[in-house]
Amino acid sequence: SILRLWVSAFQGIDKLEMWAFMEVVDNGVRFLGILILFLTGRLTVLSVSLTYLLSSAVATCVITYKAFKQFGFVRFKPMFLSRKELIESSHFSLNFLGTTIFFQVNKILLARFSSISSVGIYSYAEKVFSIFINLLGAFQTTTYSWFFRYGKNVKKEKFVTFSFKIVLLVLIYGVLSGILVFLTAPLIVKLVGSGFKESILALRILSPYPLLRGIAIVLGDMMTGKDYQKDRMIITWIGAIINILLNLVLIILYGWLGAAIATMVSYVIIIVIEVFFLRRKGLLYKQIQGRDE
């Protein structure tokens, strides 16, 4: 929480490189620690857990030092949020909660209504895609503040133009990463072992995952930038509820395949609702005021 607090503070003054710096420190210490444990033959669940804790502590200390150097000594004092601030913050918190439920419900229901092997197959495919999702997330983190800036301070035409540029980049990235995983799925699974052969099909079925998730997030950021966070939160929860209902039916019938289908269908529904909302608000086209423009 302290890490994210400082990162958000640096984002507020356009110091986005601090987010990347924090990730490098955190993951660098973690990787170094695990490498040492592996080379010394002390790689256990407890030692890895302590390494994760140590990496987070080091990253927190480093970025806290950077924050004090940038902002000066920070005094924390209790304060009460106004009713408006409380409502607005709840929209972001509830949206995050809905997103978390959306991502975790598949594995929970797989463990409950299917087999452990199904959980392993789906989790493995999800971990592979997390590599591409994290790269996409890093890019979208850098653009997040710009949606606020363009949403508040510029004309709608420029906001739409900027948003479409981001959508196009995400579209290209999503298509290319999906094709890459689809074509190399057998090689990816071979690196892990023969016990994960069924993950080849899972990877191929989930190949549209980076594209759908990326587009859904960008459209959601457009809504947030134009102060429609409450509506974004509602759409997120609609998607989460639909995902739960689909999983309850499809996992019982098809196991991990049902979970994959439920995820894809839920994302498509979220995107359709977001597009409908943005179109209704006039945020998917520019107003042409004259032929010369």
Describe the structure in brief.
The protein is mainly α and 293 residues long. The chain has helices spanning 2-12, 17-39, 45-71, 83-113, 116-153, 156-192, 199-205, 209-225, 229-254, 256-280. 32% of the residues are buried.
What does this structure look like?
With 293 residues, the chain is mostly helical. The chain folds into two domains: 79 residues, no CATH class; 199 residues, no CATH class. It has ten helices and no strands. The radius of gyration is 21 Å and the shape is globular. The C terminus is likely disordered.
SS strand fraction: under 5%
Q: Which residues sit in consecutive blocks of at least 5 with pLDDT less than 50?
A: 287-293
Kindly report how far apart the N and C termini lie.
47 Å
Number of helices: 10
Query: Quick one: overall form?
Result: globular
Number of domains: 2
Helix/strand/pairing category: mainly alpha
Mean pLDDT: 81
CA gyration radius, whole angstroms: 21 Å
Q: How many beta strands in the DSSP annotation?
A: 0
Oligomer: single chain
- The portion of residues assigned to helices is over 70%
Which sequence of SSEs, written as H and E, runs from N to C?
HHHHHHHHHH
Task: Characterize the largest beta sheet: strand count, sense, and whether it forms a barrel.
Answer: none
